[in-house]
Amino acid sequence: MITQRFVQQSARRICLQKPTSFTCHRFPIAPIANAYKPLTQSRPSTLSSAPAETVPETTTHSILAAQRLNRPVSPHLTIYQPQIPWVLSGLNRITGSALSGGFYIFGFAYLVAPYLGLHIESTALAEAFGSLPAVVRGGLKFVVAVPFSFHCINGVRHLVWDSGREFANKQVVRSGWAVVGLTAVSSLGLAIYGT
Which of 75, 95, 121, 190 lies at a CB distance of 3.0 to 4.6 Å from 151, suitable for a disulfide? Predict the structure, then answer.
């Protein structure tokens, strides 16, 4: 229907521009001409017949910026009670971005390190990590394990959804809390293992 309306309006515009066109016999010209007259407003001058004052462009930008400050802001996130599905959806995107960004940064640093004289090869990193106290090693392992395990477990949850199962509201909430619990347990296990 949108395409039909677009074609009809285009044909009417062509008839206005070229009234002798072969398509104009299908569309009456008078209603078309009235419909497409340019809309102009005229106001009687109350003060004088002098032309309007021009305002510099920098002033117009400052006026526009001041008007934008007075506009109301949509309350989007502040009016909704946090729910496990959208919180985990946001965390899944954040952890995915953090993990991929971390891989890219480390990969780039690993490639550039020999040229800058940095020592970030595997043996140097293992020696540096091994020299840390056990509590610090466990904490660092936990901080690294949380996004890995969360993103992995939540990815399995999304694969289940892709198969068309577990879409009811109660099932989504239950699987969300299961992801949170499994993330905590697996992150603690990975942090404690080998410390």
Answer: 95
